């Protein structure tokens, strides 16, 4: 392992590899990525449902997604690797008047930023998602440019391209401490050796607070367990079934293999690193799914898993310089949207670090916002 580097990225999930790729493409210098596990992307990235959408209610999240969607579509051109962004669309089902009011406001903002989002009447919802129960629905929003991707394919593509551009990737290299001198980062200590560097980029997702603790920085990211269930083959499923989100119940579902993936965020769960499967959580997902898609009655469970959302108090990412120590940059806290925001996060991080104007204005994602109270909450969180 190298003993010096121009930048050390901590974390080999989708965010770390995207940052590594874009930094290397900008010819930043010698970049080393250190990952504690024996495989890349084995934490939250491996658990993601693969959803990619630009239907958010804060400007910065809409812009991050729109940039990401354009980068996902030209992934092969940029990295040389194949990875499918399947633009089947995202549909938010609305039955509650307050939700309709909020979504109509977001729809106006999304349209003003150039997003191709539509409002659908219940009869149109039925056409797009045949087996969804619509009797209580009043409206839906739909964006055909949103869709699905395989996080592992995109991670591998970024990893491969970053290695080709000269990034060193070190596995089983858990960071145990960060040495600082005179208020600046100096040395990253790992269980496989130490690396002197003037720049540390924290891409450790749900573990970011622990990295912050090493330098006395208060990183406002908490880990929350989230579960997913997949069904066996469903012969009634239409080929172009979109990602469907039932806003009232919080259920989200999309095609996965020949069945459906079903997910829901239990917002009553306390923060912890526990990723065991809770059967009561599974039952609640199935209950919500049966209510919205009654034909699932005969479906079998194919698989289920739990993973961690890396959540900030306002459900928006933290991208920017750490205020308490020089030379530390955070790209973390994507609050359940890290796969879809990875391309944009990688690109804007590389732009900032090479002194360019970032393509998306990320001022409102600065780490210091929680201390100053300059917080704008993202409301459209699944
Ligand atoms: C059930 C579920 C469904 C989801 N669905 C979606 C979705 O549909 N769309 C979407 O966009 N997002 C989704 N997400 C969120 C998405 O998975 C995350 O936002 C994203 O993976 C975050 O990537 P990351 O690289 O920041 O974190 P991670 O993938 O967790 O990577 C962080 C890495 O840092 C490493 N690390 C930690 N500490 C250290 C250390 N001390 N030294 C070295 N390495 C360290 C870890 O081992 C890990 O590999 C979902 C998440 C879950 C749990």
Describe the protein's topology.
Blueprint: E1 7-10, H1 14-25, E2 31-34, H2 44-47, E3 51-52, H3 59-73, H4 75-79, E4 85-86, E5 90-94, H5 97-112, E6 117-120, H6 122-128, E7 139-143, E8 147-149, H7 151-164, E9 168-170, E10 175-181, E11 184-190, E12 193-196, E13 200-202, H8 208-215, E14 222-231, E15 243-246, E16 252-256, E17 259-264, H9 279-292, E18 301-311, E19 318-321, E20 328-332, H10 338-353, H11 369-372
Bound molecules: flavin-adenine dinucleotide (FAD).
Flavin-adenine dinucleotide binds near residues 35, 36, 47 and 332.
Percent of residues in beta strands:
25-35%
Bound molecules: flavin-adenine dinucleotide
CATH topology (fold) name of the largest domain: FAD/NAD(P)-binding domain
Model regions low in confidence, pLDDT < 50 over at least 5 residues: none
Number of helices: 11
CATH arch. level architecture of the largest domain: 3-Layer(bba) Sandwich
What is the first-to-last residue Cα distance?
A: 40 Å
* Helicity range: 25-40%
User: Average pLDDT across residues?
Assistant: 97
Number of domains: 2
């Amino acid at each position: 392992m190298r003993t010096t580097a121009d930048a050390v990225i901590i974390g080999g999930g989708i965010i770390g590899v995207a940052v590594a790729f874009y930094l290397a493409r900008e010819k930043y210098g010698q970049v080393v990525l250190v990952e504690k596990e024996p495989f890349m992307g084995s934490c939250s990235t491996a658990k993601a449902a693969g959803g990619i959408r630009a239907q958010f209610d804060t400007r910065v999240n809409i812009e991050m997604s729109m940039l990401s969607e354009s980068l996902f579509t030209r992934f092969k051109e940029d990295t040389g690797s194949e990875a499918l962004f399947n633009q089947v669309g995202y549909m938010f089902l609305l039955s509650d008047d307050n939700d309709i009011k909020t979504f109509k406001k977001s729809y106006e903002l999304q349209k003003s930023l150039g997003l191709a989002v539509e409002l659908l009447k219940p009869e149109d919802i039925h056409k797009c998602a045949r087996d969804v129960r619509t009797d209580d629905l009043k409206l839906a929003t739909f964006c055909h440019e949103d869709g699905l991707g395989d996080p592992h394919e995109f991670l591998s593509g970024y990893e491969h391209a970053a290695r080709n551009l000269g990034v060193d990737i070190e596995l089983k290299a858990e960071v145990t401490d960060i040495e600082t001198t005179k208020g600046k980062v100096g040395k990253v200590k790992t269980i496989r050796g130490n690396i002197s560097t003037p720049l540390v980029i924290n891409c450790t997702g749900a573990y970011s607070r622990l990295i912050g603790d090493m330098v006395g920085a208060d990183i406002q990211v908490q880990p929350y367990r989230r579960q997913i269930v997949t069904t066996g083959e469903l012969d009634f499923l239409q080929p172009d079934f979109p990602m469907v989100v039932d806003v009232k119940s919080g259920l989200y579902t999309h095609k996965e293999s020949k069945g459906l993936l079903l997910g829901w965020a239990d917002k009553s769960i306390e923060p912890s690193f526990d990723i065991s499967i809770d059967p009561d959580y599974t039952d609640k997902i199935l209950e919500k799914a049966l209510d919205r898609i009654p034909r699932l009655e005969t479906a079998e469970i194919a698989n289920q898993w739990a993973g961690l959302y890396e959540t900030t108090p306002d459900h928006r990412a933290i991208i920017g310089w750490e205020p308490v120590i020089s030379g530390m940059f955070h790209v973390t806290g994507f609050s359940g949207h890290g796969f879809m925001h990875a391309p944009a996060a990688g690109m804007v991080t590389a732009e900032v670090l090479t002194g360019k104007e970032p393509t998306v204005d990320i001022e409102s994602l600065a780490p210091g916002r929680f201390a100053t109270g300059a917080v704008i909450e993202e409301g459209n969180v699944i």
